[in-house]
Amino acid sequence: MSHIQDITKPEHLVYRKTPLLTDNIMHYCPGCTHGVVHKLVGEVIEELNIQDQAIGVSPVGCSVLAYNYLDIDWAQAAHGRAPAVATGISRLHPEKYVFTYQGDGDLASIGCAEIMHACSRGENIVVIFINNAIYGMTGGQMAPTTLLGQVTATTPYGRDPKLNGFPMKITELLAQLDGTCYVTRQSADTPGAVRKAKNAIKKAFQNTRLRKGTSFVEIVGTCNSGWKMTPVDANTWMRENMFPKYPLGDIKDI
Amino acid sequence: MKGNEVIAEAAIRCGCDGYFGYPITPQSEVMETLMLRKPWEETGMVVLQAESEVAAINMVYGAAACGKKVMTSSSSPGISLKQEGITYLAGAELPCLVVDVVRGGPGLGTIQPAQSDYFQATKGGGHGDYHLIVLAPASVQEMNDFVDLGFELAFKYRNPAMILSDGVIGQMMEKVELSPYKPRWTDEEIEKISGSWALRGKKNRKRNIVTSLELDSYGQEKFNLKLQAKYREIEAKEVRYEEIACEDADYVLVAYGSSARICQKTVKLAREQGIKLGLFRPITLYPFPTEAITKLAGRVKGMLSVEMSAGQMVYDVRLAVNGKVKVEHYGRLGGVIHAPEEVLEGFKSAFGL
């Protein structure tokens, strides 16, 4: 039997936390997708060696404190305005890698105009969009991406299209705009999905280097606390209900 | 030149890095002039038409977070929309310049000049305990001068500055002496001025975070006290005003911006009738020249605050006078500009002369 000191020798190292991730304790609930995606963004920035050129814009929502976890320069934006803030940064720092990190309420509801026009102008930025079909931070209210019939704090009897309208496929809408160069939808629920999501994020940042326009990466994720499920059940529910409505894969790649 | 055109010209000449705006009457000439001038070819200044005032001010927030000299301009309804961004800018202690060419309200109101946004400009405007540094130009020349001054004060105190103009000054054509060209700050200069907080890419230092969020109440209180200390310093050091014919005055008109221009004529008319009238013109509306007005109150019989509004600055005048003498208000509303003769009649009836 190997001794613990032998196992932890550097030559046996098969995985390490990217130094881009800080040692701050994450405030995210166990089972939340944010932690995985933060790690992927950190790994991509490390692998592209752009730590000193990357500037993040955090939203209002659960990931408002993203700046506590990734060791790069950050701006915290008003609710929904991250694409406008990123526009200001990117226009004044055209050589930098500017990205927003936004949830579905922030991006698809209150910030609908800002994301539409940033994508329409083809701002040379990356947008990481976490879609978990709910407002997590404020306690699980209906989001634009909430599914029909889905129970939330403000749709206690399930989302009814007559009362609440329909789920919004914002990513497909943004793919229609001439300014977007890469629009994809991924998930992070299996090792394979995580690898695909990382590749997508990497490609998005590489597009910034090539000055191709706006790259948009949606990650369909879970909010097990908001959904009132265990993390395992939340993943199952996501696969069975979210994926049919929000199919994974590249929507646009030019 | 037109006041609004001068704002654009002054921005280019003072080394401004970026302008983000949205069209609204009566200030659209600012962005139009910039787009025609193409400063990106001349100085590298960025000019961008945003999709809304909300987006424009948030672009300013992002660009200001980089330590750059950036600005926006708008008029009353647009400035209302910008309040969200303005309070975030104040909360994140970001320097920037906001130009407000005021028109009559409330609501969509009128496109004619007014001074009815004094409260909004000087008392914060958005949520939270904060102030903008507010400069009130009374001439096209001051439209030119205050762009540079606004940036200087904004960076000195890491606080948004506002030029509170109105449709008269914005649309009026006057002779102006434009400022000489100053180059935009180099990367090294920005590093020296704002390197400790600006987003320039983390290299050989701790990461810089621009935020107005503090979840701990005691931390938020501490931050607010720091802001308040900054405002006390601004109040002590940055008050600007002008006194016209106040030395021997029995009564004084208090007016800023275009109303002060009108009141200059009123003073002349009054003196022709043997009434010793003076004019006190606040140039900074925040910080307000409280002390100077308090002193003046000891030497006169009364003061009349003359504003193109229902009376907003009059409250600050009364606070400064603190009951020593009578303080009244006179002004036309909703985009109507008072004539010098009307002001004189208003003054006489307010003080029973």
Element pattern of chain B in H and E: HEHHEHEHEHEHEHHEHEEHEEHEHEH
For the sheet with most strands of chain A, the description reads: 7 strands, mixed
For the largest interface, the chains and their residue counts are: A-B, 34 and 38 residues
Low-confidence segments of chain A, given as residue ranges, are: none
CATH architecture of chain A: 3-Layer(aba) Sandwich
Morphology call of chain B: globular
User: Largest sheet of chain B, order of strands side by side?
Assistant: 2-1-3-4-6-5-11
- Supply the helix-strand structural class of chain B: alpha/beta
Q: Regions of chain B with pLDDT < 50 over 5+ consecutive residues?
A: none
Strand content of chain B: 15-25%
Q: Could you tell me the mean pLDDT of chain A?
A: 96
Mean pLDDT of chain B: 98
CATH fold naming of the largest domain in chain B: Rossmann fold
Distance between the amino and carboxyl termini of chain A? 53 Å
Q: Whole-number radius of gyration of chain A?
A: 18 Å
CATH class of chain A: Alpha Beta
Task: Name the helix and strand elements of chain A from N-terminus to C-terminus, one letter apiece.
Answer: HHEEHEHHEHHEHEHHE
Number of helices of chain A: 10
**In total, how many domains does the architecture of chain B comprise?**
2
How many DSSP-defined strands of chain B? 13
Helical fraction of chain B: 40-55%
Task: Provide structural commentary.
The complex is a heterodimer of chains A (254) and B (353). In chain A, 37% of the residues lie in helices and 17% in strands. Chain A is of the alpha/beta class. Chain A has one domain (18-248): Thiamin diphosphate (ThDP)-binding fold, Pyr/PP domains (Rossmann fold). Chain A has a seven-stranded mixed sheet, sandwiched between helices. In chain A, α8 (191-209) links the parallel β5 and β6. In chain A, α2 (34-47) packs across α8 (191-209) and α4 crosses α5 (112-121). The longest helix of chain A is centred in the last third of the chain and has 19 residues, at 191-209. The mean pLDDT of chain A is 96. Chain B is an alpha/beta fold and 353 residues long. Chain B has two domains: 3-187, 3-Layer(aba) Sandwich (Rossmann fold); 241-350, Rossmann fold (3-Layer(aba) Sandwich). Chain B is 43% helix and 17% strand. In chain B, α5 links the parallel β3 and β4. Chain B is globular, with a radius of gyration of 21 Å. Chains A and B meet through β1, β2, α3 and α5 of A and α4, α5 and β7 of B.
